Amino acid sequence: RDMVGRDGEAFSNRVLHYAASLRGTRQYWFRQRSRLIAMVDTLGLPTVFFTHSAADLQWPELARLICPDDPDSSSSRNRALVENPAIADWFFHHRIQKFIDAFYVGVLGATDYWMRFEWQHRGSPHVHGLAWFPDAPDVERVLISTDGSDAAKEELTRYVDQIVSTTNPAVLPDGSNADSAPLPKTDPHICNKPYAEVEDFQQDLSDLVATCQRHTRCSAAYCLRTRDGQQKCRFGYPKPLQPKTTLMVENGEPQLLTARNDGLVNGYNPVQLSAWRANVDIQYCVSRHRVIEYCAKYATKSEPRSQPLKEIFSTIVRSLKDDSTSLKAVQKLLINSVGERDYSAQETCHLLLQLPMYRASRDFVVLSLDGSRAVEEQLKEDQPATVPSALDHYVARPTTPAFQDITLLHFVQQYCIPKELSSEPSRRRKNVVVIVRPYCSPEPSSPNYEQYCRQKLMLHKPF
Asked: Is the pTM of this model over 0.70?
């Protein structure tokens, strides 16, 4: 009790570090953030950042599941959605998984992807993610290797125009009639129409853009922020019109301005929007710095804490008795780490159904270079108390030509680590993402820079 009361939240943060295995907690998402950053380090700059929201009140396929007797009634769908959060969340989870495989992998040819599920206080789910396309031009390489030549920029912008659109098909190319753009189609709602029943795809796309992709309502509760005494949309709407997609450098950072004839349209891909039939977002990634600082933090951010969290900590302190053990305090803090925020009904069902909180095309392996080893969970008599590490297996690897000159990094990426040191490793079907521990800063001025250099030698030079 004295420690909790004296050190306050600092003590709580040390205890809550062990809550990383509790899905949905902020410690859990902090671990996923480090994995996503490692994935970017391994695979390079992602091609696109994407978002998919749910139209769970409109999708006819879901309506037939939760209210089969009256799927066309909006009141019946509203009531059924409230009464069947588990089915609604499972449906979204199943739909986005199939969509990733069919669209991002099947149509756009993505070789890798990462996405997470999020609910916030709205209740309905949505996903944020990153995708890597094999032949996509890298903005940073275009600017560095070609000194930003016009031909390289034009090749890049042509590719971007095939992936991302911020134009309104119902508005003239110069945007002169954007103020009279068609209103959202809500009676009947355009998302009520299944993709299989669409006959006029151009008109359908226009209706979807008008209904799902135009940022027409700004409010203080959602996007308005006060800056310099003025309220401005935090998303930057309305955005300036752009006659064609342009790549430029501003304040040392690359900027990609996509062609735009409507200042209120959010980014989309025509096939993506037509097939998903709900609000989407897709943006071309322009720099690793922005991916790390924006996409990684945005895609793996933890849900906002509920207001009474500090009161909960104070209650824990007051409830501890003089003879309470430290274990009791730790247990209470871990339990309350799960209840530090609000959970929607659909997120609760997602957790109870043991559905994944994120999905990635790669597995992750932690490689410890400081000599640490995992403790044997089922220790037997005369057996070592620790499990051989990946580093131990690398040192004891076979002497055959396939392993003779392999680096430690490639060994861990390409081969499954066997249980016994004497066993020969088997080849993985797909390389894993390696997370090196402990983390050492690459800055020459950092106190552990010498250890960083030692790690690099261990990773990339066979020994």
From this structure: yes
